[in-house]
Fold each of these.
Amino acid sequence: MSGDKDSTFSLKVVINKQKNKVLFAEIENDFANVLLGFMTLPLGRIVQVLKNHYGENTPLVGSLNSLYNGVANLDCSHFKSFDVKQMLLDPPSAYSSPFRNMNLRFFDSDYVPTDFHLGKAFTGNFLEYSSSFIVSDDLWMVPNVNRSFVESLDYVGVALSDMDGAQTITVTFGLNEVMNLLKGSFISRHPLTDIILGTKWMNSTPEKSESKISLHDLIVNEASLDSKAKGTINLKLTFEKSTKKFLFTQADQDFVDLLFSLLVIPLGAAERPFEFGTGLTNIDNLYNSITYMKRQLFNGSDIQNWLLGYLIFHEADTQTFLTSPEVEKPNFVDSRSRMYIVPDDLTVTPFSVCSTLSLLKRMKISASDVEELDLHAGVEEGLGLCILKASLTSTRAMTDGLINYLQLKRHTTAVTSNISRVEKMPPIMRVYRHRAAAPTAGLLELLD
């Protein structure tokens, strides 16, 4: 990690001192590349770099932390090889070189995959060197091109009234600030304000209250929802009988492989399938910003599509990878017949009767108060996508993901594949979206 602390970036930041908030920042090409580079980081790598930097104070990113920690704690005998486990714990980005160029090797993987395709090789910067950008407090990023003062503010959602008394300051970002920005993009409502002005971090994705929809009742009352599609995964869900609370599921290698594959999906590719975003506001905004940029801004004709996750695994996008039985998928888990326990937070542990009794004891659940229900879930019908979305924002990813999956199946005919992201844009961006005919950001919107 030599040289990391020597890398600095200068930002011109406009603040409203009276309201104690950052309105926007003007950034040059070098720092814009850092922001775009977030989209290239696999989900497991994001957890890893946060853990390495923050240690015991690592922020929670949905259920990804516990999924990652479960992999770390599993014995190597459960994986196809030692290298497979290491790759899951240290997943390489398809675009690591920009971070190396900026001496931010902290983001890079030392693991070089030999039989797992994560995208196309890339060297250099994502953007043309002459590019500069305006970035809002919640990470809307737009080119700093010829337009009026009012239009520029409108593009980043800044009201003219907020500019009364505004002042410009110059701020230097080093590794710590870049790490805080990565952290803030997941957990803060106003990451630039929190980092630059030192305000109290406000969680952008507060933990959801318990769903009023009962997963238990959905499965009992909707037995007809059992999948008959290709790629069916069989789950045995365990509930506390008296409360109908989900405890854990018993699953085989296929489901565990599906969960582990989430760790190697780049952030931009994880965003792509969800028309209205993932619920991570800052990340959604950054992804949308890339979608609406003109291709001429990028240092290559395909870079925009790569950042947006159009092609990742064996020339398939995330939706195709997670839903098509025909797409070749990596096998992480040893092929010997084994079963696993997966609780709400996606921590994978080996199944055994004794370990299950110990788990129930830790949960303070009586064995006589346990009920098991079978669910036959179809990969083609969006199971993996539902779990992916829930894993990004919820520490109850199994419950939330399965509820979304069952609701999605029930309302399949009402779900369309051509809904745009227009509703989440600033007003002027909505017009720009239609005029520019930018590529759509995904194919499927999951139910909330």
Amino acid sequence: MTSSGTDTASAFSSSDTAALERETDTEGQVVTFEQIWNESHRELTSQWIRKNGYKRVCLQFPDDYLPHSNGISVDLTKLLAPEEVKVFIMADTTYGSCCVDEIAAAHVEADSVIHFGNACRSRACRLPVLYLYPKFALDEGNLLEKLQTLRPECGEREVCVYLDIGYHYLQDNELSKKLTEALQPKELILEQFPVPEGNKENSKPSELERLSIFIGADNQRFANLSLTAPAAKWYIFDGSTGSLSAKNPLTAQYIRRRYFHIEKCKDAQTLGLIVATLSAEGYLDVVARLQTMAKGRGIKTQLISVGRINPAKLANFLEIDCFVLIGCPFNNMYDSKEYYKPIVSVFEAEMALNPAWYMKYPEAYVTDFKQLLPEGRSFLPFDKEAIPEHDVSLVSGKMRGAVRDSVETSGDPASLALATQAKMSLMTTDSGLTFEDRTWQGLDPALGQTEPAQVQQGLSGIPIKYSHQ
């Protein structure tokens, strides 16, 4: 009994040293100072700041770059000393390190942001941004030797080679010629990923079957790219280890799990719309669209903003049956089993709520929610009248249907009674306790019932261990 109680308590609390021992989220590859800040970075940064006349610059670093943040800040400050530029370091980002944290930058009234490392490149709408990527060494001889083993598969195919952020500097005509000689494909495409601003993705339709090669590690960027870019086969060449391996992102188990979550979204009586970005362009339009589609199906919605999500935060919303994560392309999919309720992406919610996607298999997964808006290439108009009145859940076996604004009857009292009963059944809910029904609703403010008190020194230390206790 004691052991069970301890296990339960540990799920909702942590030890005194947990905050100090917690490991940060890194991509596995340790970066050096020279890889993320060399002479080309210094020249590009100083020219950008001087050309635009910026005076308050924020440097945003991911967790694994933090050991080098102070050195970069000091070096940049010295470099721009004549211009009297003030430099700030941003580390603990609001949502994800791949997104530009315009909220934190606004706290110091910054006029620009320099973003280091992994970047989703969602268009920022408040501040100008300069993206700086690391430069990793690559053994081209080993790369070409390993790729020659794929030559039999490339003869009649279109081959697309993607360069991860650490290898963007390698893109030139010389590398393209070497890759063509090694693979001998029908057609070769060499691209950077993520696509730099100003460059257009290669969306030219081709009748050839595509084979894709990713030069980088098996990381978040590859997961995003492999889901959104259709290809018959995927290969990863890891530049740090020099190994070539095949990778199948869309396994049958993964597809079944995502479709199960889509069915759970259809069954939900209350959806939680988690806003995991406040800088990506178009997020308010997506929120409005999801609310409209949910209302057409009689599903209630709640708008939630809790910063970086975790199971403990979302466990507080007992009344919500399914969460929809509205985030950047790199930060909108959570496939963890630690969460108590399913979390779907905007695209999966679109497939669940929009009848236009019924019995329609998408050509590729959509991670950028802007592509689901009217100007996007994956947009399908929402028609409330196309929602089936009677639909059977593939999970629970229960009936579900659309909510109509009015019920047309022929005047028959029996038909009117049936219509009223159906409407009442749709209004009932067993999705969980509402806020008013909870036994504890937070501390009692006792407004007007307490005497004014003199200001005293408060607690000091970290929240889980105070220095005077």
Amino acid sequence: GELKNLIQPPLDKRMDEKHSAYDVACIDTLIKTSIIGYLSEVSNPSEGVLAAELASTFEFDSQQLVPILRFCAANGWVRETQDSSFALNRCSRTFIKGHAGRRLNLWYVFTA
């Protein structure tokens, strides 16, 4: 799994996962709530952001957000830098607002 995450193009990875409802829900949560954008704008993106801060910022329950973020980490979309602290990785950076990957993903969601 990890090797595939390193070499598979992010958009191919996203299309592979579009068929799994939980995968879709978790990734869409990151994209559509702007969590990806928030993580991309922090002062030290390699350290990540605590799930409690994300939950507070986006008005989520942190107990519900952590499993979503951990699922995304297990599937190579984000990484858990410390306990309950998450940062973007190569795949998730594709979906930062303004990048072509985000536009293609949103287009695919509405046409699929």
